[in-house]
Amino acid sequence: MYMRLKQYICIGIIFAIGGSLIPSVVFAQQNTVKDEFFRARVIQASEDVVKKDDAHVSIIQKIRVRILSGSEKGNEYDITPNPEFTSTKKQNIEQGDVVVVAKTTLNSGEIRWDVIDQYRLPNMGWAFAIFIGLVIFFTRKRGVMSLVGLAVSVAILGFVVIPQILSGGNPLVWCLAGALIIAIVSLYLAHGFSTRTSIAVVGTLITVLLSVGVGALFVWLTRLSGAGNEDAFYLQLTQLGMSLDLRGLLLGAMIIGTLGVLDDVTTAQSAVVGELHLANPSFSRAELYARGLSVGREHITSLVNTLALAYIGASFPLFLYIPLNKSEQPVWLLFNSEFLAEEIIRTLVGSTVLVLAVPITTLIAATVFGKKTHHV
Is 23 a domain residue? Predict the structure, then answer.
């Protein structure tokens, strides 16, 4: 809720000072010549000095760092980190830590050093390596191809969708186009070219298109603006020279967020109907559809729960605010607020689309496999 408070403060400032916003930004930029960022190792760290008052506890540290990169490599500096960075014991900087430091040079010639974050990229790399290793170990060639599909998906989003949106393109149109391309490429890369995969692709494409209508309907019914997420709000603030369609961005994010689970549903239903046909080629289309849908209902039950928990987990701190409710607002007012309603609608859109994907893909598979006696 702290981010929400900052959002309201920003809105208030904008309306209060109006046209002075941009000059203020320019003034701040003129006072700072440049910022440089370096990796540094902590070679000394003093014991914590804790200052207590009625409101909070601040942890103050003094550290000495040796710069590991850039033009300052090898130099050593004494830094007193911002107390907000070391506000809890778990955030304390210890000797041997590698951190990110900022060197700020002002017009006055003054140079300021500060610690802005822990340097975590190498350990993130280890976590990623463990993930890749497990995928390849258990799935072999299929796993490698699925990782290639993942890389292609990230590339499409990073090098096509995002640049087009930032250059003024319609967020909904580009997210939809990206989702359709990702669905086709990732499914064929992960599962190979076969009738089953093609059925899954068609089922996914149809359902993705339907998700646009479902999302637009739910967003329209609840009058969401797209500004309920603080990330989207600050993105809008940084794009002072352009108008960003936050509602379209919200719908696009819903489509992309649902796509991964859709792949799972459509490939599973296609495989189920294909196996039913192999087990008994005499099954009619109606029988294949009925039996496949019976399995699909179980799939829906588990996946709706999975999707809901995924969204709740991603926004868990947000939900923790509800029982705290220090402002003593009515619970209905909290659920009515856009920042919480947005998370609920995301879950409902994804779950609704999943429910639609099962009968659609099952119907396509039953229609195709009902004619075939081989090559499934």
Answer: no
Long-range Cβ contacts of 26-32 (<8 Å, 24+ apart): 30/107, 31/106, 31/107, 32/104, 32/105, 32/106, 32/107
pLDDT over threshold 70, residue 327: no
Examine the domain organization and report whether 99 and 188 are in the same domain: no
Q: Where are the alpha helices (DSSP H) in 39-120?
A: none
Q: With CA atoms as reference, report the closest residue to 298 among 263, 269, 322, 267.
A: 269
Domain boundary among 119, 135, 157: 119
Distance CA 349, CA 357 (A): 12
Q: pTM value?
A: 0.76
List all residues 6 or more positions away from 265 whose beta carbon is below 8 Å from its beta carbon: 296, 299, 300, 303, 354, 357, 358, 361
Whether 292 and 370 have beta carbons less than 8 Å apart is answered as no
Lowest mean pLDDT among 14-23, 44-53, 133-142: 14-23
